[in-house]
Write a structure and sequence with these properties.
The chain is an alpha/beta fold. It folds into three domains: 89 residues, Udp-n-acetylmuramoylalanyl-d-glutamate--2,6- Diaminopimelate Ligase, Chain: A, domain 1 (3-Layer(aba) Sandwich), CATH 3.40.1390; 211 residues, Mur-like, catalytic domain (UDP-N-acetylmuramoyl-L-alanine:D-glutamate ligase), CATH 3.40.1190; 141 residues, Protein-Tyrosine Phosphatase, Chain A. The protein contains 17 helices and 22 strands. Helix 14 packs across helix 15. The chain starts with a strand and ends with a helix.
């Protein structure tokens, strides 16, 4: 954060301050164990864990200021003894105060803010934007996917003084949620990676998903710029009816002419991709340490943001080569019996599943390939058709073997069968333990050089399968 004092925080929050009023606070935490020294701690009440139970612990861990709800301390005797040099701020709502302070700090920073959302690839795109802009600017971004009503204000409050660009991933589960995040973040640039079928369970139609995602563009100032995927029909449809300046990126330009265009994709190293990028009369080559067309599209979005903020094409491409990703996304691991594991277990939906299967096929080449696929959540009425769609894609790609994990993932197998995939290539399991057993048996038969993709929704904990396939070496 920066040079706010406990008194200054109290004035913004309009709360009652007890203890030291002149000490500086820097950063904030929601988990008492993460305090390192000097932070604010928001004692958020919850169903399972109540932050008010950890006030004394967080002071011991080094936090300076605890923000708690005054209703918990109506009687003076109930207030904890505030240690010397520390402070307690009592407010009506800790949650509301967190968001109000984040809104205030965002304005005090005076930084450019980039909002990133989409049905797929928003975390990767956020990381890529940071890599591109770090060539020129002091950048701060969400850790992993801290992209909700708690994670986004936490990110803002931890952005240090001197931050020149703040990159904020924005997630949503329903209408109005991105709008609420934008009221805190006040973005100058909005990036929508795509508008897919994730969240159909809650929003019912893709049109409503598009409406929810578009809240980011609607929140931009009149001189704000939207960065949109020229290969995404819903994004282009919405863009055609919007008054903001738009910069499109893409490969073929299926629905709009890309301003930033990628071409000539080819393999680079074990899992990377080299491609050419053109913008206006410039051309450059990027070496991206990730495979797949979908990742190239995300990289083009990042380069597009760079062009808006004055990062040259050459510098932007150079930045992509230094990309650092969040964990569990297309990681290469060494597996049992000299096999190669692609650990892509961060999350899953039909679009990302098919993209990862394409990567598996490309990288396996003439070698045997095995897809271990778990259930995909949040597809609502499209759950059965979405899983079968993945199975059809797997069959068309001629992946050597398939193991499904979970009852619903059995629909992936059914989709593969319907596309002509042989029954003896399919192993259906209901638990991770059973999936691990089948995988170990199958890899013994397939032999060295086999490529394995492990993927499923986050709640499936597919990383436990990856760990067992590694551990058995």
């Amino acid at each position: 954060m920066g040079k706010w004092t406990t008194k200054g925080v109290a004035q913004i929050a309009k709360g009652t301050l007890i203890g030291n009023s002149d000490v500086e606070v820097e950063g904030c935490v929601l988990d008492s164990r993460q305090a390192k020294g000097g932070e604010m701690f928001f004692a958020l009440p919850g169903e399972n864990v109540d932050g008010h139970d950890y006030i004394e612990a967080v002071w011991k861990n080094g936090a300076i200021l605890v923000i708690a709800e005054e209703a918990r301390f109506k009687e003076l005797a109930k207030r904890p003894s505030v240690p010397e040099g520390k402070a307690l701020l009592l407010v009506k709502s800790v949650f509301t105060t967190l968001q109000e302070l984040a809104r205030s700090w965002r304005m005090e920073l005076g930084t450019k803010v980039i909002g990133v959302t989409g049905s797929n690839g928003k975390t990767t795109t956020k990381d890529m934007i940071a890599a591109v802009l770090s060539q020129h600017y002091r950048v701060y971004r969400n850790k992993e996917n801290q992209n909700n009503e708690l994670g986004l204000p936490l990110t803002i409050l931890n952005a240090p003084l001197g931050t020149e660009v703040l990159i904020l991933e924005m997630g949503m589960r329903g209408l109005g949620e991105i709008k609420a995040l934008c009221e805190i973040a006040r973005p100058d640039i909005g990036v929508i990676t795509n508008i897919g079928s994730t969240h159909l369970e809650l929003l019912q139609t893709q049109e409503r998903i598009a409406q929810a995602k578009w809240e980011l563009v609607e929140a931009l100032p009149s001189d704000g710029i939207a960065i949109l995927n020229a290969e995404d029909l819903f994004s282009v449809k919405k863009g055609n009816n919007d008054s903001h300046a738009i910069r499109y990126y893409g490969l073929e330009g299926a629905f709009a002419l890309p301003h930033i265009k990628g071409a000539q994709l080819r393999s680079w190293g074990a899992l990377g991709t080299t491609f050419d990028v053109t913008f206006q009369d410039q051309i450059s080559t990027a070496n991206l340490p990730l495979p797949g067309t979908h990742n190239v599209l995300d990289a083009l979005a990042a380069i597009a943001v760079g062009t808006v903020l004055g990062v040259s094409l050459i510098e932007g491409c150079k930045g992509l080569g230094k990309l650092e990703l969040s964990r569990m996304r297309l990681e290469i691991r060494q597996g049992v019996g000299e096999t190669v594991l692609i650990n892509d277990v961060y999350n899953a939906n039909p679009i990302s599943m098919k993209a990862s299967l394409q990567v598996l096929k490309e990288r396996a080449g003439e070698n045997k390939s095995l897809a271990i696929l778990g259930e995909m959540y949040e597809l609502g009425p499209a759950a059965e058709s979405g899983h079968r769609e993945v199975g059809r894609a797997l069959a068309e790609l001629k992946i050597s073997e398939l193991i499904t994990v979970g009852k619903l993932a059995g629909e992936i197998a059914q989709g593969a069968r319907m596309a002509g995939y042989a029954e003896d290539q399919i192993k259906m399991t209901t638990t991770r333990e059973e999936g691990i057993k089948k995988a170990l048996e199958l890899l013994t038969l397939l032999g060295p050089g086999t490529w394995v993709l492990i993927k499923g929704s986050r709640g499936m904990k597919m990383e436990e399968i990856t760990a067992q396939l590694e551990r058995s070496q």
